Input
Amino acid sequence: MSDLSIQLHWQRAEPVLQTGQYSNAHTVQYNNSYDVQVDSAPDWGGDPGNTNPEQALASALSSCHMMTFLALAAKADWPVATYHDYAEAHLGKNPKGQMSVTRIDLHPVVRFDTGFSVSTEELEQMQDRAHRYCFIANTLADSVEINIR
Output
């Protein structure tokens, strides 16, 4: 299987590394060419203009789920015209009392070519299959909810 990588770079801007007195802002580089500015979540003092690891996790899940859904839809000859999702990562304490992403909610909206439709039940079943086959969802286990819109 593939080994997939990123490069991360952080450099201290302050004279000394002291608790609560330094920036978490850093750069993540994809494919040696695309840089993303990352910081901690705003609740933890991060710049809301930058992405944060929790958003990146929600993005990875949403993206993986969509690609899995599209692969399954193509096999079923479903003419998907558009796919939109709104993903939310929820922060809180896990059963061990540790801070974590406790849940990620996906809210996919799927539109088909004119004249094609599926029942709500068929769409729910396909979304459930996409969830079960998605690599990222399998990594996260039980912390994902899919709310079809």
Q: What stands out?
A: The two ends are 34 Å apart (CA to CA).
